[in-house]
Structure formats: C-alpha cells, structure tokens
Design a protein that fits this description.
Structural class: alpha/beta
Family: Belongs to the bacterial solute-binding protein 9 family.
Number of strands: 10
CATH class of the largest domain: Alpha Beta
Protein name: Zinc/manganese transport system substrate-binding protein
CATH superfamily of the largest domain: Nitrogenase molybdenum iron protein domain
Number of helices: 12
Helix content: 40-55%
GO molecular function, one term: metal ion binding
Order of helices and strands: HHEHEHEHEEHEHHEHEHEHEH
Main location: other
Strand order of the largest sheet: 2-1-3-4
Strand content: 5-15%
Oligomer: single chain
Subcellular location: Cell envelope
CATH architecture of the largest domain: 3-Layer(aba) Sandwich
Mean pLDDT: 81
Low-confidence stretches: 1-31, 137-153
Largest sheet: 4 strands, parallel
C-alpha cells in the first residue's frame, strides 16, 4: 500500500514536471499560427472619414490607426515619424485615392510599407471639373493661378471628395469589407454583416435627405462654402455650391478675386454661406458681411469632428451637413446664429 502511494506521488510529481517543462518551451509553429490568427488585424486609414468607415465594419477584429485625425486638413498635412512607424506595421492601408492624399507616396516609401493598399473609392463614378469651374476659380485667384491642387488643373480633372455622396459611401463600404474579408477570412461573416447593416443605414439616410431637399425650391438651393468639396453632394441632391478656393483648401483668392466672388454671391442670391471645419473662417465671414447671405454653421468636408460630437462619424457628418443646409435653405427659415 505504501509502495502504491509512493508511486502515485511520484507520478504526480513527474506529471507536474512535464507540464512545467512544456509550458516553458517555445510554442510550436501551429500554436504560434493560432495565436496570430486571434490577433487583431492591423489597419491604417489615411484620414478620419475612412477611419470611421473602417472602424464601423471592422469592429473589434481590427487594430485601427488613422493618420489625419478629426478636424485635420488632408490638403496641408505633413506626415510625422509616428505615421511612418504605424504604416510600417500595417497589414492593410485604406486610402481614398483620386489624388487626394498627395503626401502618401513618400510616406509609404519612408515607412517601407509591405502590406496591402486598399483604394476605397475604386468603382465610383468620378466627378470631373468643368472648364467653367476651373475658369471661375482661376479668375478669383488672379492671373489664372489658383495655388494648391489647381496650379496645373485642366478640364476633366477629377474631384477627389467622392465620399460626399452616400451612394459612393456605399461603394467605399463594400470595398473596405472585401479587403477585410480577404485579409481575415476567419471573421468574414461578421465583416459582411456589419457592412450590410452600415450600407442599409446609408440608404435610409440618403432617401430621407432627398425627400426633404426636394421640398425646397431649386432657386433657393444655393450656398457658398470655403472650398469645392461638395460637388458630389451637389450632383446627388441638386444643391448649387459656390466655392471660394477650388478643390483644395490651401489656396485663397486674391483681393480682386474676392470682390468678384462677393459679386457672384449677390447675383445668385445665395441664402447662406457656410464655414468648413478644415478652412480659415475669416474668408467666409467677410463674404457674409458684404452680402445679404446669412452666416450658417459649420459644414464638415474633408474631416470628421471629434468622436463624441454629432459630426464625429461618417453618417453623423452627413446628417449634420444636411440638417444645416436644409435649415438655412428652407423658405421662411434663416441660418442658425
């Protein structure tokens, strides 16, 4: 009996020793692969609007870094060493494309990025700048020079702000979901479900905006903004936007150009002028002072607001912008003070 007890004790000790030894050994390749599969997918988005879209679809399955954050100006952005470090570790890089992120090629080169680049705008019907649009902006900047992205602009140049159409937003969402599914097939079902729910919310909001804007007379659907970021919104919803700075927010009109712009605003009887969260407000405030147009609130063009604000998400941004415009343009209404 004593011998059996001693053998049992020895067996338990041996088993404990084996377990301790195994625990201290490096994980097998199979175990390492399983652990890696459970790790979040490392994703970088170029700016806040894409960052929100990726986050909505990716959920807890991804570790997300956004390069140009809330209220950041992509047009004037300069990459930082921390951006190169984040990109070097990324498995996916989600970008707008359409020549929007002009600083991105040098950042990718500096970081040694080896992951997969996902162009969210792939498949959208792009809006091309007309000769009249370019001539108007060039004239307002004096001597045909516009600065920024329009220095070498020509008719047919594409407008990169495609996310300002909810129809395009749906395409962005599908492209992002497809990329996540390909990179992380284990969570494909969840990515697909989240994307479809997200797209259904876009469809519902799109229908609501169309219905309300259709009740506003077409001659009142005219507004002034800092730069030409709302061409896709205009195309979808029949609102005319008069822009002071072309498609880039880093170039301002000359004194002569500003006078011409003020004259144009008066001639078109635009009910309201709007600030943008990524542009200098001085220009728009001056236009409002010198015309009969009301000073509206802020519109969100190239960046979201902080996450806890009404315009802190893509859908929230669209609701905010549409609400501000509808309030200002409805007959008998005035822009919010």
């Amino acid at each position: 009996m004593l011998k059996k007890i001693k053998q049992s004790a020895f067996a338990r000790s041996l088993a404990a020793l084996v377990l301790a030894t195994v625990a201290g050994l490096p994980a097998s390749p199979a175990a390492g692969a399983a652990a890696a599969a459970k790790a979040p997918l490392n994703v970088v988005a170029s700016f806040s609007i894409l960052g929100d879209m990726v986050g909505q679809i990716g959920g807890d399955h991804i570790a997300l870094t956004t390069i140009v954050g809330p209220n950041g100006n992509v047009h004037s952005f300069e990459p930082r060493p921390s951006d190169a470090k984040a990109l070097a570790q990324a498995q996916l890089l989600v970008v707008n494309g359409l020549n929007f992120e002009g600083w991105l090629p040098r950042l990718e080169k500096a970081s040694g990025f080896k992951g997969t680049e996902v162009v969210a705008s792939r498949g959208v019907t792009v809006r091309q700048l007309s000769e009249a649009e370019l001539a108007s902006v060039a004239e307002s900047h004096g001597h045909g020079k516009t600065g920024g992205h329009l220095d070498e602009a020509h008719p047919g140049e594409i407008d990169p702000h495609a996310w300002q159409s909810l129809g395009n937003g749906m395409i962005y969402a599908r492209n992002i979901a497809s990329a996540l599914i390909k990179a992380d097939p284990a969570n494909a079902e969840d990515y697909r479900a989240r994307a479809e729910l997200y797209i259904s919310e876009m469809k519902k909001l799109d229908e609501e905006i169309r219905q309300v804007l259709a009740t506003i007379p077409s001659d009142r659907r005219k507004v002034v903004t800092s730069h030409d970021a709302f061409g896709y919104f205009a195309r979808d919803y029949g609102v005319q936007f008069i822009s002071a700075m072309g498609i880039s927010s880093d170039a301002e009109p000359s004194a002569k150009g500003l006078a011409l712009l003020i004259k144009q605003v008066k001639a078109t009887h635009s009910p309201a002028v709007f600030l943008e969260n990524v542009s200098n407000p001085k220009l728009i405030k001056q236009i409002a002072r010198e015309t009969d147009a009301k000073l509206g609130g802020s519109l969100y063009s190239d960046a979201l607001d902080q996450p806890d604000k009404p315009a802190g998400t893509y859908l929230g941004m669209f609701k905010w912008n549409a609400g501000q415009l509808i309030y200002a343009l409805k007959p008998g209404e005035g822009a919010k003070p």
